[in-house]
What does this fold into?
Amino acid sequence: MRVSRMLSTLAFAASAFVALASQSALASTISVTYAGSSSFGSGGVGYYTGGVAPNPSSNTALTNVGIGGDSFTSADHSYDFSATGQFNTWCVDIYHWMSTGSVTYQVLGGSSLATELNTLRPGNPSGALRVAQLSLLANEVYSLVNNENTSAAFQLAVWAITYGSADVNGKYHIDTTNSGFKVDSSVAASTYGQLANTWLANLGIASNTGNYKLTYLSDGTAETTQDMVVFSRVPEPGSIALVAGALLALAWMRRGRARQ
It folds into this structure.
């Protein structure tokens, strides 16, 4: 009886685990409310402020913006990333200001973001390659992002990949001269600017620290707020195998009882 109860509990937990690991298809949009800077469990960590270009005011002149991830809340828990009602997002739309109210986003995949980036940043690197590099960045460093400094560094790295110009080695840089995405000297010299540069220099070389899925939150044609990306952790293959094994064990025990 005790073993049966334990396996039943395990099976329930396994089912929930698998459900959370897969993107829900219950809806194609999500209504969210901006809740401030990114939060990693203890409230918003804040933003750094620095000059970047392009921006909503100019394609070339530096304008001060908040640098760091954003926090959203939502009553829609049907997506893996929104299951707790709060999640962090990262700007991939540098041409609009963030709406401080409630908005509805289309929930899309990386291919849709690639198409958007091909329009905003035509030529090489392609939108598809930039999206692949965003996913690579997340797999390598996202598990390290947990405070104001790393939040700002990660947002800078995301902007550099989505809008920056790669060098002959395919690497991006946080600097004051990049024609695709540039910053002021204080941002380039800051601890978070240098950290972003380290991550970008090691992109594709550093070991993965996690396995993350990219979800694109698009404002569509409304253009009343920024488009965002969300990175949600997915289970490792070993974890999936463990869950499958537990479910098979439960099915075997139930089959044995039916024969008796």
The helical segments are 2-21, 110-120, 127-141, 148-163, 185-189, 191-201, 237-259. The first strand starts at residue 29 and ends at 37. Residues 1-26, 239-244 have pLDDT under 50 and may be disordered.
